[in-house]
Design brief:
The chain is of the alpha+beta class. The protein has one domain: Nucleotidyltransferase, domain 5 (2-Layer Sandwich), CATH 3.30.420. About 30% of the residues lie in helices and about 20% in strands. The chain contains four helices and seven strands, in the order E-E-E-H-E-E-E-E-H-H-H. The strands form three sheets. A three-stranded antiparallel sheet has the order 1-2-3, with helices on both faces. Strands 4-5 form a two-stranded parallel ribbon. Strands 6-7 form a two-stranded antiparallel sheet. A hairpin with a 2-residue loop joins strand 6 and strand 7. The protein is globular.
């Protein structure tokens, strides 16, 4: 599980402040999780605020907590996650990978999402940010499916 922030750069002359990065930004926080060699789930946070409730709600809704080990970075919003699921923390100040413990797969998805939005849409509206994220999750989850076009058409027509 990991979090990222989506949004454009501030325009020149829009206040003179240096743009902040990471958790200090005005961008939309997005929380996501990925199962090893399987599917990704991601969701923009409500009211564009990231707190400890958002990741826990995503885990409770989508994870078999009795048979899972959750791997996150050291963000404080994940504190207490160990009460609902087995939880391992990757301390990025010390290392990025410790055997099977890493967040690199989720960070790879964030890279695809962040490069894909301006590459395909050029601009996103915050009103529909969840729709964009859902589309990229769908593409990622069906990346090995040779018939993804047929699957998409079938779902649109209600055949499946």
């Amino acid at each position: 599980m990991d979090e990222t922030y989506i949004g454009g750069k501030p325009r020149k002359g829009s206040g003179g402040e240096k743009p902040k990065h990471g958790r200090g930004t005005k961008k939309v926080p997005v929380v996501g999780m990925i199962e090893r060699n399987d599917k990704v789930k991601a969701k923009a946070t409500k009211n564009h605020k990231l707190d400890h409730k958002t990741p826990k709600a995503l885990v409770r809704a989508n994870v078999d907590t009795s048979n899972t080990t959750l791997i996150t970075d050291e963000y404080r919003g994940y504190i207490g996650m160990g009460r609902i699921v087995k939880h391992e923390v990757v301390d990025h100040t010390a290392w990025y990978v410790d055997g099977q413990n890493h967040t690199n797969t989720m960070e790879g998805f964030w890279a695809l999402l962040k490069r894909g939005i301006p590459g395909q849409y050029h601009k996103v509206t915050l009103r529909y940010i969840d729709k964009y994220i859902t589309e990229f999750c769908y593409r990622f989850n069906n990346r090995d499916n040779e018939c993804v076009h047929d699957l998409t058409i079938s779902k649109a027509l209600g055949v499946i």
